Each structure stands twice: as C-alpha cells, then as structure tokens.
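Exam revision sheet. Question 4 asks you to relate a sequence to its structure. Input first:
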Amino acid sequence: MAGAVEAMLAELGLALPDVVPPLASYQPAVQSGVYVYTSGQLPMVDGKLAVTGKVGAEVTPDEAKELAKTCALNALAAVKSVAGDLDRIARVVKVVGFVASATDFTGQPAVINGASELLGAVLGDKGVHARSAVGVAVLPLDAPVEVEVQVELTGA
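Answer key, structure tokens:
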C-alpha cells in the first residue's frame, strides 16, 4: 500500500520507478543509523538513458533539468529499497548534483533545480535541503546528469 509520499507522486502524475540496478560494485543506497545515502543516480528509465551528451552542447539546460528530476525519482526509489517506506523520511539533508558540462556551460545550479524542485513538491518542508551542483567533464555512460541524495529517517 502506498503512503502519503507515493500518493503525492501520483497526484503529480509521477510513479516511483524500480530501483536502478548498480552498474558496478556498489549498492543503490545504504543506511547508517537514521541516514540513508544513495549512490549517484543517473536518469535511467526502463534500464537505459534516454539522452546522452554534455549539457550546453548536445543536451539543452531544460532537457537536463528534466533529467535531474528523473535522477531524483530514482534516488527516492533507492531510499525506499532501504527504508521500506518513503513516509519514514524526516527530511532530505543533502543533494549533490553532477552535470556533464560543455566547457562554457555555467548553469549547473539551474539544472539541479530539477531534482530539488521535485523533492520539494513531493516532500514539502521535508524536502528542503543543502545542495551542491558541480560541473564535470564526463559522467558514466555519457549521462548528462547524476544526482545523489542523503535523507534522515524517522525512528519507526
């Protein structure tokens, strides 16, 4: 049975995807105490990247912002795989976003807003977080965006 967070996703016309299987030797998410840390989540849909390339070259900033939203959905799926229920999220603590950027692209914060805005829309005040948005030369599989999330869980 879906809880309030998944009901909000449905209200927004979104569904929680299956957890993206690891591409190498790591887990999609791990819990330590009351915190869940996700691995970097790529904008995978049905097991593949819909778009590849650098933001500001092959990928537009608006496309990349949507891809960051997909990364955040994948991160929520990874959190649920460890926490069991997204309603256990007490707050999103930190979001780190990586943007594979053309050499002259400087709009990384606006791209990662896709992830931040999704978390805010789904979790309300619990979705407000600290954040870094970093431009990088290349990401795995030539993904334009990668997002990792740290959340704090409630005790029960």
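Marking note for examiners. The helical segments are 4-11, 61-83, 108-123.
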